[in-house]
Amino acid sequence: QVQLVESGGGLVQPGGSLRLSCAASRSILSLNPMGWYSQAPGQQREWVEKIWAGDTTKLADSVKGRFTISRDSAKNTVYLQMNSLKPEDTAVYYCNAALGRDQYWGQGTQVTVSS
User: How many alpha carbons fall within 13 Å on the CB side of residue 30?
Assistant: First the structure.
């Protein structure tokens, strides 16, 4: 299986920034797509951004203009740059990867946006 480990979460004030990282246990060249999902307390897990081979990306309307996903195959790592954070962004953020028809998830990293 594929192990995904997230990092970079924390507490930030509204308007601040964080950069989340997702390190994979194998080459991410075979993981397509990869992406980030968020899950707030009492809510369903929702996709935030996805990235495909060739760096094609898709992002949710709620984060357009604020979040950016990128992938560094040399480091087996996917990033989520989060800018202009809002309290509504508070959630656990999970890394996701597809290997063929199999789906893999990280353990999540907590992002808290509060003044």
Answer: 12
Local confidence pLDDT in tens for the 115 residues of the chain: 899 999 999 999 999 999 999 999 999 999 999 999 999 999 999 999 999 988 899 999 999 999 999 999 999 999 999 999 999 999 999 999 999 999 999 999 999 999 9
Sheet holding 77-82, edge to edge: 4-7, 18-24, 77-82, 67-72
Q: What does the alpha-carbon distance between residue 42 and residue 115 come to, in Å, rounded to a whole number?
A: 22
Q: CA 56, CA 54: separation in Å to the nearest integer?
A: 6
Residue 55 three-state SS: coil
